[in-house]
């Protein structure tokens, strides 16, 4: 490294933290900088993220110690809080002086979010693959931070088009960079089944061999799926698997004829119109099958939630639908998991603790809340990442347009009349992939709208302001380019040329 020092700043952090007290001066990271790790390994994943990012750009191989040496230069010291409850489940504090950094958090994820803030406070070149012959400096100051909502998610539909582990992991990198902590994977739909179930291998083998438009499809073997779950966990992200039932099931009905009741299986489906399929929910075999599926998914899922779908079951008779959802969600509970379903499940009796995901009809979401469900909010007009940014632009047009400003400018606490904020768990942005076939398109649909949603979920309403957000997020374009992340020049934001 040579004499050139590039300093970062706190001015464009997204999501905006609870408080920032900027000081004067900078802390230069150099070959004498060391990392001090707390015992117990709680900060190991966060430290690995920091060392990998900084190492790639600067060539620095920051040594990790359990205690500081007298001969050491500035240290980045990770410590648990004096009072373990003080920072909450995901909160953290950063104190940066001319002598070093102190990173305080009470949990694995708190340390990960602290590192994501440190990386944003470094100059853009410090997170890119190669920063050239320069050193990087952090601004001096104190950041205190904790999220508004515990559920800050994105959904990736791997059923309409299949995306392999590399694409999914690249998506996890985006989520983690903006402190989103849930990756909901939509693993099955009419057009394809994407996860190996060993009790019913034909689900992936036969049901996995189709996709929208006639492509080859694909599916995860369990080992690959475990790899994604672990990759995400290290970055603060919990995977929430969804098997959509009793509708959206043509791929399963095609692969497992017995799910049709009369044993007659439909052809594979490659179109986009949905709402025509249903499991035969009056047949005991269907519940035995669901029990097998949930058992294997639960074993693959360290997270607490399994999503049973439940949307647009237009081919299931209403009373049958209600009985199915009540029983299927009970089976999820029997396997030790918390059921979550799209808002339509509010028509059924639900086990305590069930979560409903609002997407279209406020009345259905309010009904679910009335039955005691807590809500994840994915209103299409604010959070659907497959919908066009602008009229005539690329994307699904059915919900009008969803600009970055539409994603940003709403308050989850007041969206649904009659649902108190205590019943709102958080927000989630779904990316449906009827029209998405590659990683670059995933990124164009989700950047900058997903960072905007991340701030909706993380930052207090009183701290949020669109004009201020659009100034901050425009600065991130340089990072996205350095990381080779594709993005959309959303018209509401003044981007650098
Ligand atoms: C509605 S949202 C659906 C999906 C489609 C999406 C396209 C929901 C629960 N169902 O099946 O992919 O619209 O925007």
Compact description:
By secondary structure, this protein is of the alpha/beta class. It has 2 domains: 4-145, Chitobiase, domain 2 (2-Layer Sandwich); 151-482, Glycosidases (TIM Barrel, Alpha-Beta Barrel). The protein has helices at 44-58, 108-121, 165-177, 202-205, 222-234, 250-255, 284-300, 318-334, 362-370, 380-383, 404-408, 439-446, 449-458, 466-474, 477-482, and strands at residues 5-7, 19-29, 34-36, 64-65, 75-79, 92-96, 100-105, 135-145, 151-157, 182-186, 188-189, 192-193, 238-245, 305-309, 338-342, 355-358, 374-377, 424-431.
Ions, cofactors, ligands: which are bound?
A: ligand TNX
Provide the β-strand percentage band. 15-25%
Roughly what is the average pLDDT, rounded to an integer?
96
Low-confidence stretches: none
Count the beta strands.
18
Q: Tell me the radius of gyration.
A: 23 Å
Which assembly state applies to the chains in this document? single chain
Count of alpha/pi helices: 15
The class by helix and strand makeup works out as alpha/beta
| Fourth CATH level, the homologous superfamily of the largest domain | Glycosidases
What's the CATH topology label of the largest domain?
TIM Barrel
Q: In whole angstroms, how far apart are the ends?
A: 29 Å
Number of domains: 2
**CATH-scheme architecture of the largest domain:** Alpha-Beta Barrel
Give the overall shape.
elongated
The largest β sheet comes out as: 8 strands, mixed
What share of residues is helical?
A: 25-40%
In CATH's first tier, which class of the largest domain applies?
Answer: Alpha Beta
């Amino acid at each position: 490294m040579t004499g050139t020092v590039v300093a970062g700043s706190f001015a464009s952090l997204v999501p905006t933290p609870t408080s920032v007290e900027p000081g004067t001066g900078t802390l230069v990271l150099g070959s004498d900088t060391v990392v001090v790790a707390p015992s117990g390994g709680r900060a190991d994943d966060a430290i690995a993220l920091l060392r990998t990012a900084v190492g790639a750009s600067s060539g620095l191989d920051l040594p990790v110690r359990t205690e500081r040496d007298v001969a050491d230069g500035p240290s980045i010291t990770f410590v648990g809080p004096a009072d373990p409850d003080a920072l909450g489940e995901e909160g953290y504090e950063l104190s940066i002086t001319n002598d070093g950094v102190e990173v305080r958090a009470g949990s694995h994820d708190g340390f990960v979010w602290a590192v994501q803030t440190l990386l944003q406070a470094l100059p853009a070149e410090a997170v890119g693959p190669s920063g050239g012959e320069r050193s990087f400096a952090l601004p001096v100051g104190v950041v205190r931070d904790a999220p508004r909502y515990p559920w800050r998610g994105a959904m990736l539909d791997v059923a309409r088009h299949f995306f392999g582990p590399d694409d999914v992991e690249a998506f996890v990198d985006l989520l983690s960079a903006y402190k989103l902590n849930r990756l909901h994977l939509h693993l099955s739909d009419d057009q394809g089944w994407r996860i190996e179930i060993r009790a019913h291998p034909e689900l992936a083998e036969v049901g996995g061999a189709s996709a929208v438009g006639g492509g080859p499809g694909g599916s995860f073997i369990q080992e690959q799926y475990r790899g994604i779950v672990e990759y995400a966990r290290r970055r603060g992200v919990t995977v929430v698997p969804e098997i959509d039932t009793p509708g959206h099931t043509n791929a399963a009905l095609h692969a497992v004829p017995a799910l049709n009741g009369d044993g007659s299986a439909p052809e594979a489906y490659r179109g986009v119109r949905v709402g025509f399929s249903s499991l035969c929910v009056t047949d005991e075999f269907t519940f035995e099958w669901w029990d097998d599926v949930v058992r294997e998914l639960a074993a693959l899922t360290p997270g607490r939630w399994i999503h049973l779908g439940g949307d647009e079951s237009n081919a299931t008779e209403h009373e049958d639908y209600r009985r199915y959802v009540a029983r299927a969600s009970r089976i999820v509970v029997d396997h030790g998991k918390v059921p979550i379903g799209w808002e339509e499940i509010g028509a059924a009796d639900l086990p305590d603790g069930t979560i409903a995901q609002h997407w279209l009809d406020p009345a259905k979401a309010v009904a679910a809340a009335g039955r005691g469900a807590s809500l994840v909010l994915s209103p299409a007009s604010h959070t659907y990442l497959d919908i066009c940014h602008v009229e005539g632009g690329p994307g699904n047009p059915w919900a009008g347009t969803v600009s970055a400003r539409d994603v940003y400018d709403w308050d989850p606490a007041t969206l649904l009349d009659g649902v108190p904020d205590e019943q709102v768990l958080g927000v989630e942005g779904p990316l449906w992939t009827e029209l998405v076939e590659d990683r670059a398109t995933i990124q164009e649909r989700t950047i900058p709208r997903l960072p905007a949603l991340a701030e909706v979920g993380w930052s207090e309403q009183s701290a949020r302001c669109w004009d201020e957000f659009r100034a901050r997020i425009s600065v991130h374009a340089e990072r996205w380019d350095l990381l080779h992340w594709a993005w959309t020049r959303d018209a509401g934001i003044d981007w650098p040329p």
